[in-house]
Every structure is written in structure tokens, then in C-alpha cells.
Amino acid sequence: MANNTEEAKTGASFSSIDYVQLVIYPVILLFGSIGNILVMLVIWNKKRHRKINDYFILNLAIGDFWMVTISTSVDFFLKFREFPFGDLLCKGVWPLMTMCLFASVFTLTCMAIERWHTIVKPLAPRLTVIKVLWVLLFTWIAGLGCVSPLTVVAHQRGRSCTETWPSFAMRQAYTVTVVSLQYALPLFIITIAYARISIFLKRRTRLKISDSSKRSAAVLRRQANNAKINKNLRTIVTLFAIFMLPKQVLWLWLDFGKGGDFEHFGDALIFSEFMLYIHSSTNPVVYGTILQEYRSGICHYLRRIFPFLRSSCTNSIQVHPELKLESNNNSNSMTLTNRKLFHQPESVKEIA
């Protein structure tokens, strides 16, 4: 995250990475906010037709929206002016942003478990709407609990937010804990859940084919649907693992290695944040390519906002009936947070 600056920057003082941020951040803000708002509108207008999966996606879109808008807006502002409210930036804004990302992480993990339970155990009792709402409330409460230590140890010092721990060992312990909760453990659970779904679908497809003397259209549709689900699951896990890995590695390198001594460590942090923001912004795109109902709903609003997209958007939602994927059999994209999104160590104060 970009540092607090003691005075506004001038054009001459901007570095190349600053110019990159000034170009990319508005694009990410526009794309991510509009995309997540469209997803929320689609779900909101489903009303009585909402499924359990829709509540998870709605919670994820809310977390992504606030994370993208707060992060990029504050970063952009700090390129020109110092944050005017002192410690509120370090004790309030950055922890709030990280809490949103924690909520997204926990939501994605719960989504994976729910998808596994629904697909692999179709006869087991399903989650009710009330239970899902309690689960989603827990994701935010747990996120608040994870960032609560930061509201105590974070302080504004000169140009940055720093963490003042009673001992360096406590800081290392917190780093390991957060990396585990934000990346390692969720990735493990999500990978196992989706792998079991994939194995189950492959086995079920083989049984359907072997038990049927007629390769009916229903069997072919099931094969196509299962293949699409498997492809989507691979995409979800891959995006999660790749886009979130750099941030986790950098924080571990900083606290357990000599990352702070690396000349371009600050630039590496900024790059990892680009990855994080882009990942949150691309979730609507993933929804639109995975679920037909989301693709149709998003295109409906895009056609109303941008009439010139009418023909191209209409063409994009034409799907062969045999390849139409039911939303009940799908998973959804994910986004994941960094360890301490706002933290800027003493050794990298001059990032911005």
C-alpha cells in the first residue's frame, strides 16, 4: 500500500511506478466497482428466486466492492496529499479494508464447502437461508477479529503506517497466523473440496454412461455440464493461488528473511497489490462466464447503461442449450487478501 506522504507530490517527484499506479488504479476502480455493483443488482432483482449460492456471491461481491473502492481511492489520494486524519488511516481505514478481504476469504472457503456438500451429498440436508445469513455474518465477525490486533499496534509514523509490537517474535507469529488464515488454509480447503467435486462428477459420468445402453441427450448434457464445472473449478483455484501468492511470500520474506534490504522491495509490494486488486475486480467477469443467469443479467444492465453494447452483449449470451450450465451445480470465483494490507515497514517507508 502506498505510504502517507508529508507533502503533496509534484510531477517531477513521481517515479515510473507512481505513473503506473496513476493509470491503473482508476481503471481498476472503475472496472471493479461497476462489475461488483452489477453482480449485486442481478442478485437483488432475483428476489424470491434467489438460491443459497446467490447469498454467498452477494457477500463476496460486497467485500470485493469495498476492498477495491477503498484501496484504490485511498492509494490514489495519497499520491497527492497526506491523509488528513492521522492515526485514523492506520487504525481504521486499512484494517477496515483488510477486514473486507478476510470476509471474502472466509466466504470463498464456505462456498467451497457448501458446493461440495450440495454436489457430492445431494440427499443430505441443505442449508437454509437463515443458516446461510448466520454463516455470512460470521465471516465478517471473524474478519474483524483477525484485524483487531492491527488496530492496537498500528500507528502513523512519518510517511507510513507501522506496527509496534511488544516483541519481534509476536510480529512473526501474527504474520504466520494471518498468512495461514488468508492463504494457506483456505487454499487447502478449497482445493480439497473442488478436487472431490471433480472426482465425484467424473465417476458419476462414467457410471451414467456404463449403465445406459443408449447415449441419450440427457447423458450428453450431463457430460457437457460436468466438463464445464471441472474447468471452472480449475480456473477458480488457479486464479486464487496465483494472484494471492506474491503478497504472502513478500510478508514472509520481510519478517523471516531480509526482504526489507532488497532495493526494490517496495515496488514488489505495489506489484503484489496490483495482483490483489485485479483479482477482486475480475470476479464479476468470472461470474459472467460461468453462470448463464449472471451473464444474462449483467448484459441486461450493460445494454441499459451502454446502448452501443446491445448487439455484442446479446451475441455473447447465446449458449447452446446442451451446454447450458445450471447455477446449482456451479462454484464461484474467489478473491483473497494480503496479510496486513496497510502495513509499511520502516525499511520500505520510501515506497511512494
Automatic annotation (TrEMBL):
It comes from the Eukaryota. GO terms for molecular function: G protein-coupled receptor activity. Residues 35-287 form the G-protein coupled receptors family 1 profile domain. The chain crosses the membrane at residues 23-44, 56-74, 94-113, 133-154, 174-197, 236-254, 274-294. Its main location: membrane. SUPFAM superfamilies: Family A G protein-coupled receptor-like. It is found in: Membrane. Gene3D superfamilies: Rhodopsin 7-helix transmembrane proteins (1.20.1070.10). Keywords: G-protein coupled receptor, Membrane, Receptor, Transducer, Transmembrane, Transmembrane helix. It holds the Pfam family 7tm_1. GO terms for cellular component: plasma membrane. InterPro entries: GPCR_Rhodpsn, GPCR_Rhodpsn_7TM. It is a multi-pass membrane protein. Belongs to the G-protein coupled receptor 1 family. This is G-protein coupled receptors family 1 profile domain-containing protein. It comes from Pocillopora meandrina.
